[in-house]
Amino acid sequence: MSGFHDVRFPLRVALGASGGPVRRTDIVNLSNGREQRNQRWRDSRRSYDAGSGIRSLADLYAVLEFFEARRGQLYGFRFRDPVDWASCPPGGTVAATDQIIGTGDGMTAAFQLVKAYQDAGGGWTRRIVKPVLATVRVSVDGVEAAGTAWSVDATTGVLTFLAGHVPAAGALVGAGFEFDVPVRFDIDRIDVNLAHFDAGRIPTIPLTEILA
Q1: What InterPro entries does the database record attribute to this sequence (predicted)?
Q2: Of 173, 168, 131, nearest to 152 (Cα)?
Q3: Mind listing the pLDDT tens digit for each residue in 124-163?
């Protein structure tokens, strides 16, 4: 991913930000009163407003400093989604069996970290490209694998088993992890008015996900 700084947006502001997944669907109304729906985007794209997370002048300055260091929209960065930031549901504990990320064939050593969203009606699998390395746990057929048996690329989310530890044919590969969302500022200008800020009005600071 070009133009990316591997640093995280101020966490205390991110936890109060608003936003979430966005999808694009074309809806055509037919002459018989029915409608036809077509998916324009294969994957969702997250969008946030960091302005809603600012609670003090210290928070505002931290965001301004971060904005300048990223040079506006030029460089992407890590962002902690306030709700969806782990392989397990909110309030849970990351476990090595949280997500099934592949099935071994005895030869394949590399597996992409993913997170599945599903219910009885359907599902969608999301690629995780910015894992938090210290939190990653891995399992093979339900048994946790030692950290010396594998490595993870923090910039791509690719898990690689080392020589002698490649999963056998038919073995289920699982993983648990925390992760960030790769985003960029969606503006090149932040308007700050301290009179408005003291009155409870905060600047709008939109962020948009960068899709790899």
Answers
A1: DUF2460 (IPR011740)
A2: 131
A3: 999 999 999 999 999 999 999 999 999 999 999 999 999 9
Rounded to two decimals, the pTM is 0.90
Query: Where are any strands of DSSP class E within the chain?
Result: 4-8, 18-22, 25-29, 35-39, 45-49, 76-79, 99-103, 110-112, 114-119, 122-127, 137-140, 143-144, 150-152, 158-161, 172-176, 181-185, 206-209
Per DSSP bridges, beta strands 76-79 and 4-8 are parallel
Mean pLDDT of all residues in the chain? 93
Across the chain, which distance is largest between two alpha carbons, in Å? Answer: 65
Q: Long-range contacts made by residues 86-93, C-beta under 8 angstroms, separation at least 24? A: 86/135, 86/176, 86/177, 86/178, 86/179, 87/115, 87/175, 87/176, 87/177, 87/178, 87/179, 88/176
Helices and strands (DSSP H and E) totals, the chain: 3, 17
Above 80 in pLDDT, residue 12? yes
Please give the C-alpha separations between residue 107 and each of 112, 168, 170, in angstroms, as whole numbers: 15, 8, 11
Domain boundaries along the sequence of the chain = 1-83+181-212, 86-179
**Amino acid symbol at 51:** G
Distance of CA 90 to the CA centre of its chain: 14
